[in-house]
Write a structure and sequence with these properties.
Blueprint: E1 5-7, H1 9-16, H2 23-35, E2 38-41, H3 42-55, H4 62-72, E3 77-78, H5 82-95, H6 99-110, E4 115-117, E5 126-127, E6 130-133
Parallel strand pairs: 1-2, 1-4, 2-3, 4-6
Antiparallel strand pairs: 5-6
Helix pairs in contact: 1-2, 1-3, 3-4, 5-6
Length: 141
Amino acid sequence: MTAEAFCDTNIWVYAASSDVREAKKKNRSLEIIHSQIVGVSTQVLQEFYVTVTRKIAVPMAPSEALQWIESMEAFPLVAVDGNIVKVGIGNSIAHQISYWDGAIIAATEQLGCPILYSEDLNALQQFGSVQVVNPYADIES
């Protein structure tokens, strides 16, 4: 299955956010998710759960996080397998980025997505066939 773009964990976290200070990022995230076919990986599902239940100002109940994850599974989904791990390591070494970012790029490539929405990598940076787009670049923090 292919997708038009891949959404890194932060896109989903903002989409689920109840923090009024993040309303603009939430709205932008929801626009992205609802306006095109976006991909996700099992890594993103795991990171989403940990982030929204433990790392944000107002943590989400685990049952609510599970509901989000179940809805995210409806999108094209890449399971992190041995190949994704190896390509992620290769990306990490080649581009001098974290393994986790390298694995996100590997999942994006596997889905055939030309765009990776993320605020964690340098906007407009190209990694092989994948271009990073920070959808919040024009939003004041």
